[in-house]
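Appendix B. One record, verbatim.
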Amino acid sequence: MIKLIARELEVPVMRLLDMPEHYCQSCGMMFTGPDQHGHEADGTETEDFCRWCYDQGAYTYETTMEEMIEDCAPRMAEHMGWSVDECASLLGAILPNLRRWNATDK
């Protein structure tokens, strides 16, 4: 439903969800504590990606967006108390807008 509302209002899904400003631009995980950010090749911390998706200046593993959703939805469901299908649907709306998956950035 959120995807339909976002499309009709012509706004990103993240805006409707009032998502925080900083979240991983690969998996969508919100940064909630220290030591969650990845690092560039020179060792500096990046604000764009979590350490599980990005480290030493590169993605930690190759995957497709669909595989990312499949991998993240069960963990998200466990932590949020939602169904896996609800989480997969939400991730399917959010991930295409993130830097790693956004077609305009490729």
